[in-house]
Design goal:
The chain is α+β, with helices and mostly antiparallel strands and 368 residues long. It folds into 2 domains: 109 residues, Phosphorylase Kinase, domain 1; 251 residues, Aminoglycoside phosphotransferase (APH), C-terminal lobe (Aminoglycoside 3'-phosphotransferase, Chain: A, domain 2). The chain contains 12 helices and 11 strands. This is ethanolamine kinase.
Amino acid sequence: MATRALARLQPHVTRVAMTISCPDDVRNFVKECIPKLSSVPADDIHVSHLAGGLTNILYCASHEQSNVHAVVRQFGEGTEAFIDRDAEEFWIAAFMDVYGRCDNGLAYEFLVGYAPPSLEEYKARRSELATALAQFHHRGAMWGRCSPRYANAPNSAKHVFLGSFIESAVQVKDKDLSGFSEEDQASLHRLIEQLPKDAERLLRTIATFEHHLAVGPCHNDANTPNTLLHADTRQIRFIDFEYMQPSFLLADIANTMCEFAGYDGEWERMLTREEKCAFLRRYFEESARLTMGKGATVEGSMEAEVAMMDLLEGVSHVGWAAWAVAQAASSTIDYDFVAYAVRRQGRFASMIEDWEAQVHACVPDLKI
């Protein structure tokens, strides 16, 4: 019954045969796919540039008199090689209104009043963040029942973070790296050799207790820019679903845990063990409420779950380090991807033995 009800809620998304490359294209696109704007003169639609990243250019198209505010996502050229845009559209529709799709873009709901929190507020509101992640995973699991194609996609932790990301990094060895400093070239060669070994080590370790791990639709990139906080209600919403697909739920949480260290990898800012236990308890309490109803409780300590989550933090470090190696060789964005990759792989190398020892000691007590 729930599946049929959700199926009825899936939106009809208007397909528009055009490509977008400038604000005027954005205006024409939203006029075609948003009924309220069909009779509005194109020049009356305000278009602003929101962001330009590695995989998209984002615009906001708005018309105050019609109370319409939309995000228009112009897909980066060639990104369909590693981003399933159909899957992205499907998952966006689980959490916000989708208005239209064109040959190289998508229009969907703009979350008015929301903005990324500061790192300090992100940490201060970690209990609300745990609740929001549980609700996100629950909603994703319910929505995923509408499409086995997306809900049963390969496990992202194993096949993306420790799979295709690693393959992309290895391919960098065949590229011309002469534009990098000698130090960066040495770092890239070391990472290209080491990251596949790190991935293999993680896969072997995870395989010993994978049967304990819950799997479901995961965001896989719930970093601070993709976590929005409402200015008045302080409600948390997540955006940008390019990498969303099934994974270990604890891996998704572990990936978010890394955000407490910021982009500069200040690992001392990560949550303490006690704070992690409290975070996971709040997460599992909300999950229990959503699946079993009000009054559901979570018994016992969270020590085993924290140990497993800590090891899955390694998936985030190795995967994003490999991603950064590939970006260093191809991106035109002015960012030190080599230094970022070195920081992430360095964190993994310094912690993996401790993580393995902790999780092996706790496996008999795992409750998930």
